[in-house]
Amino acid sequence: MKKFPVTPYLLLLPSMIYLVLFFAYPMVQSLQLALRREGQFLHLRAEPAPEAAPVGTLEMQTEVRVLDRLRTEEVLPNGRTRPIYWFQVEAEDAAGSTIQGWVSQSNVFIESRTESTTARVVSGETTQEWTLDFLRRMVTDFRFGSALGTTILLIALILPLQFVLAIIMALVLQSQIRGSTIFLYIFTLPLGISDLASGILWYSIFTQRGFLNSFLVSTGLLDQPFIFIQAGNQGWMIAAIVLAEVWRATSIVMVIVVSGLQAISRDVIEAGEVFGANLWQRLRYIILPMLKPSLQVALILRTILAFQVFAVVVALTGGNVITVLANETYRWYDPARFNNPNVAASYAGFIMLLSLGISMFYLRAVRSQEEAEKAL
Amino acid sequence: MTGRTYEQSKPLMTPAQTAALDAQRRRARLGHNLRRGSIYALAVLLAIWILLPIWLITTMAFSTPTDVRAFPKHFFPIPFSTQTLDFFLNTQGILNSTLNSLVVALLALVISTVLAIPAGYAIARYLFPGRDAIRLGILSVRAFPIVVLAVPLAVVFIRLGMFDKVHSLAMMHAALTLPTTILVVASVFTSVPREFEEAAQIFGCTRMQAFWRVVLPLAVPGIAAAAILTFVLSWNEVFAAILLTISNRTLPAQILYTLDKSGDPFKFAGGFFMLVPSLIFIFFIRRYLFNMWGQITK
Amino acid sequence: MKRGHFLLLAFVAVLLIAGTVFAQGDTITFLSTQFNVVEEAEKARAILAAFEGGAVEFVGSEEAAMIDLLKAEAQTGAGTVDVIGALHGTFPTLVNEDLMFDLTELLASIEEGTDVNDAFVQLGRMGTEDYQYYIPWMQATYTMAAHKDALQYLPEGADINALTWAQLAEWGKAMQEATGEPQLGFPVKGLFNRFLQGYAFPSFTGGMVTKFKSEAAVEMMRFLRDDLWPYVNPESINYDFMNGPLLSGEVMVAFDHVARLKPAFDERPQDFIAFPTPAGPAGRGFMPVVVGLGIPFTSPDPEGAEALIRFMLSPETQGAVLRDLGFYPVVSGVDTSNLPEGVAIQLGAVEALANSPDAIPALLPVGLGARGGEINEIFRNAFDRVVNKGEDIQTVLNEEAATLQTLLDETGAACWPPDAPSEGACQVE
Amino acid sequence: MAEIVIENAVKRFGKFVAIDDVSLTIHDQEFVVLLGPSGCGKTTLLRAVAGLGMVDSGRVLIGGKDVTYLPPKERQISMVFQNYAIFPHMTVFDNIAFGLKMRKLPKETIRERVEHAAKLLHIETMLERFPGAMSGGQRQRVAVARAIAYDAKVLLMDEPLSNLDALLRLEMRAELKALLARLGATTVYVTHDQIEALSMGDRIAVMRNGKILQVDSPTRVYDLPTNQFVGSFIGNPPMNFLRGQVRRENGTVKVKIGTLLIAPPEEMQAALGSYEGRHVYIGIRAENMETLDRPADDTLPVKVEVVEPLGSQNLLTTYVEDNMIKISTHPDFPAEVGGQVWLRFPISKIRWIDPETGEAITPDMETILA
User: Which residue of D34, D54, D70 to mutate against B (max B Cβ within 10 Å)?
Assistant: First the structure.
């Protein structure tokens, strides 16, 4: 009987624990956020103590009558004392019956702790319930459609350009011209540039007082600067984003393509040359088919990453008129804006599903083509 | 005849034939040179396409704030001035956040590399049930937007009392880069011939010693390249950084945070400053990039 | 890569890590949602350097990050933040979470020497009678700024200190016709929601949320879309801060927060003038912004915190804040005689605005708690859909009003000025 | 007509000179083998003919057309690569048809030609298979079929058999030779295997360090190497080279090896005379010496160190002074390790070599003519 290999699992264990702790667990948690709502209710207590038995339940915003109050003090670590009030209150619960009990000051809004006779319930224990509300809110948001559309449009415009450019770059490098190591360095430069920095770079070009307008005006091609970034003509904004993204993210595709090219034996390409294939035919019939696995990896990687890019969009266009899914995720998450992690989580889940779906599609599309060839 | 027997033959031709041949030859040579030349031109064109925006932002970073706002803009940093960059660098928070960025990136590098070495070795050298599933799983985690991951992570960190700490952000970044690092390190180990390791074992090493004395030294350059890649990723990562830290911001987080609240001179100087380290790091690892990806795509 | 490089990197790593661990000092930590703009934070730190009660670490923060941090510190019981500085609108959440000391006694001791604006003190009680959640720190608002070259195109008979929105539109048209470029600028990427909440809606409808879908609101949206926006620089969608476009000459007339216009006045006071925001049919809507100082229960050094607040409220410090940061005092006795030219220009516009007979002060939304940001998005969305996407005005306002109502109901927020006070949740009419 | 003419070709890779001023003419329908150790420039030369690496100077003509700077597709050539270079993503049929498709020939013609080529190589049953699942020998056949189907005037083969195992190589060698003879294409065949070269080529060009040392028929290359290198590279065992001293006795030039005095033939007298008092090498093949088991006139006694029975012959390793001599003898020849044998050198089989240059010493033409 074969011994079950323990060593590899032991070696993988630390990484796996780490990834579960910092990736899988938060991921499941946040996916849950998309489908779970926190409700709030307040337990009235039999005694003025947090652990006392609950005697009834009130909903948020219920008005309560204050019957009695109890003041205690807590000494804080910094030496100060902090007064803590418990109020004995009376109110009508959701069923309409009048109930009485104690609540802590932190759960009610009260104008004066010492004098007021009414208060309003503002916080309490949380419950969780399953809900589709957040998904619904995402789908019905007026930006959802345009964000999805723009994201797909950008991917559809950027990816082909990137792949063509990356393949050209890779072929140029492969042709082993003089100084190709310098070109190699230059072509891979954008690899380490964040989408934020890239956004700033291209903002300096496309803004009204930017380099492009400086060039056009100082050469006399335009009398006055043209405003590329404007709601009226979104084509220019799309073009600017496409350029910035093609500029930034082509190098990773190129690196993958070059690695793929290196794996193709030189003989095979030369054979194509000998048997009469011109450059285009060699590319079409030999190089590209043999690069298929590399291109597939690059395609999946780029698509996944393209769904997550938004700093370029925000830095270049403000992110309001033109928006993408990742930007919407942030808009809903951003504490200064919607501050709604639930809808943000819906967006995140949606992006993940789209990414995985498209990756599956790529994989299947490519495989079925090979199977078709074999079946011939 | 026993002399040299190979023929120094030239076809006998009339002068007209020779002339025709020469013309033919010139045409062919022109075509050949044209082909080489156009490849060269293409390379230069592509290089300009990559370098131009970098040059322009550099121009901005080394002009006075007044020149930065001027129109039409200069395409060269004349008059040369470090005023804009100085202002950026002297802004409180920038030096601190640069230091934070360095610490975070280095910590992330250490954590992710230390974890990835055994994992990568396991994937490279052992065949075990679930190996492909693990490879696939590792890749697919990258499909989840960090945006939302940060929310529950922040909760976890707060619960652990690790919120707004440099090392907690480093742990997050390590988690983000770990999948890629594992795969890259695995490919590096795959490229170290198994025979070396076996030879070491034959000559008296334990498997551990063989790994430590033979495999690891051979893999160090590749692993270092992977580590630098982690560094660059962490250096550029902005989302988790801005959500997980408040007072201990990293550089990109600090820049993003102040970006929409500051003028163009600050923006451009910041863009330039963020760019520089990546230029340096890519220089160090440029040759390893292809090996790394070549292995992964197989 | 040589092995040496790798070792070197590792060595540097160890050094850096060691460095940060030991670099903790004993200071008063001041966490503020204000002055997190780079230039402003610099100046704030300079002012704080004059505080004699100890070293102050001034940390800029986003609102929600501040709330999260305070909550987290309350849970663990071990705090780092001594003083917070935040907008009035930030405090409801902190109040709900019961995180802040009662500063009634501190305020009383401050008022022994200096008179603090009573209206703001009242706001600081957050609707209670006997609990001072924050002590007002400073105030600000939004005004207009214009390059002097623009004045020649001002419509005939228009008084720049009593402009109407219609006149602004006319002015914009005249400038565009003369220069060939749109010369009005709004910070659409920045604090634009404040323009809608505090200026557009109140000026045309007299209210902020109650009249959200009224006929007057429809007329306002139509005005924005048809009369004003054609003359607004389209790159406004990418403007955060209007001083940049003013300084670079992209626009000649702009609307923004005084602090965000300030650099233009500081840099070229001779070129720019400030003037009150225009008035609409219902009056001159404007939004005073109040910033308060509070002490969380978890403060490691409450005495230091109190001393710092006392310092911040002194007329000298208030004067310095006005001079250097363009935020206006909340105490009496501040010397305004020797102000820099730019600050004086802006102060003039702010006073003209507050004292104009048709002024309608509109407060920041109150009582929305953690969902305070959502109302901003509702106003922005309404504008975006009408002006940028060209949707039907009434439909958009009806739909967004429904969302707004849900928000108000769920948070139980009562109406706030300029809307009349309400019993229970505020209702959109 | 597909004569290949290479004139003064030079190719450098950095400082390394891969082809050093090579000129060579390959006649129409001729089968020329480029033979030499690895790194001698033979593959580089082949690639220069193919157009896969342009020469730095000099020219290449194919069929009278200067193709020096033309890309491969315009040269009317076909090629079999060392690693076969068959396209892994195409079926065998598509591989063979590739070049024809590039020429945009009609479908029917392509099918006919592919099937014909496949039949010649006995792979007609594998046309729909992918190369991935095929053995080395089968792939090799596909590569040859592809080259043949392309039907070019010139066929270039870069060590086509080197990746096959010994038995298969032997089998394929004969088959290939027959096939190529039938096709009648001008063929340039690169190999480092001298047996392959001797058995297949019409002529062999022996290369070393970027230079062609000798171009000749296999027999001449074998029997009459023009220098020491060719002699030692070709043949197994390699040619023996014995150090002898040139002296003049009685007016005639003689060469002394050990105790033996050899008298060179008449036509060599003048040429060898200039070496008087110096050494020359006497090159002689192992099978060309007469081996005796007892002393006789004009024989050289040598001591047997090793005896290697090879079946059809015995190979003796012997020494005289510090010269090692390999001798092949009839299997029945009595030789024992430690014993002595006597060698006789037939003068007509001797090559005289200048020890300094390694070049064969050739007779003075004037003497011969006189």
Answer: D70
If you classify domain B92-261 with CATH, what class do you get?
mainly alpha
Do the beta carbons of residue D279 and residue D272 sit within 8 Å? no
B43–A209: do the CB atoms touch at under 8 Å? no
Instruction: For residue D352, list chain B residues with Cβ-Cβ distance below 8 A.
Output: none
> If 0-12 CB within 10 Å is exposed, 13-18 middle and 19+ buried, where does residue C26 land?
exposed
The number of residues in chain A equals 376
Considering only CB atoms, which chain B residues are within 8 Å of D364?
none
Asked if D123 contacts D51 with a C-beta cutoff of 8 angstroms, the reply is no
Stretch D324-353: mean pLDDT, rounded? 89
Q: Does the domain made of C142-287+360-411 have the CATH classification 3.40.50.720?
A: no
* Pick among 3.40.190.10, 3.30.930.10, 3.40.50.360, 3.30.450.20: CATH of C3-139+289-338: 3.40.190.10
Q: What is the pLDDT of residue D46?
A: 93
Chains D and C touch (3+ CB pairs under 8 A): no
Residue A348 to residue A32: CA distance in whole angstroms: 11
User: Which residues in D lie closer than 8 A to residue B10 (C-beta atoms)?
Assistant: 5, 7
Option in B107, B228, B246 nearest C17 (CB): B107
d(CA A228, CA C42): 34
Kindly state the tokens that stand for A33.
């956020």
User: Which CATH number covers residue A291?
Assistant: 1.10.3720.10
Is A275 in contact with D91 (Cβ distance < 8 A)?
no
Omega within 30 of 0 (cis) for the link into D237: yes
Question: Which chains border C (3 or more CB–CB pairs < 8 Å)?
Answer: A, B
Domain D240-369 is classified in which CATH homologous superfamily?
Answer: Nucleic acid-binding proteins (2.40.50.140)
- The fourth-level CATH superfamily of domain D4-233 is P-loop containing nucleotide triphosphate hydrolases (3.40.50.300)
Q: Which residue of A has its CA nearest to D92?
A: A374
Mutate to test the interface with C, among B173, B231, B255, B260 (most CBs of C within 10 A): B260
Choose the closest CB to D78 out of A274, A285, A374.
A274
Q: Measured between beta carbons, which residues in chain B are less than 8 angstroms from residue A355?
A: 143
Question: What distance in Å separates the CA atoms of residue A263 and residue B294, rounded to the nearest whole number?
Answer: 7
User: N- to C-terminal Cα distance for chain D?
Assistant: 40
Confidence class for position D217, pLDDT limits 50, 70, 90: very high
Mean pLDDT across chain B: 78
**Taking the model in full, what pTM does it have?**
0.82
| pLDDT score for C25 | 45
ipTM reported for the complex, 2 dp:
0.79
Parallel/antiparallel/unpaired status of strands D279-284 and D290-292:
unpaired
Give the DSSP H/E element, type plus range, for residue A98: strand A98-104
Q: What whole-number distance in Å separates Cα of residue C408 and Cα of residue C429? A: 13
Give the chain D residue nearest A265 (alpha carbons).
D85
- Burial label, B80 (beta-carbon count in 10 A; 0-12, 13-18, 19+): exposed
Non-local CB neighbours of C17 within 8 Å, separated by 6+ positions = B103, B106, B107
Distance from CA of C37 to the nearest CA of B (A): 5
> Domains of chain D: which residue ranges?
4-233, 240-369
Q: Which of B157, B247, B251, B280 would best serve as a mutation to test chain C binding (most C beta carbons within 10 A)?
A: B247
- Helix (H) / strand (E) containing A162: helix A142-174
The whole-number pLDDT of residue C230 equals 93
Q: How far is A117 from chain B (nearest CA, A)?
A: 37
Q: pLDDT per residue over A77-134, tens digit each?
A: 888 888 889 999 999 888 888 899 999 888 888 888 888 888 888 888 888 888 898 9
D92 touches A295 (CB < 8 A): no
| Interchain contact, C63 vs A336, CB within 8 Å | yes
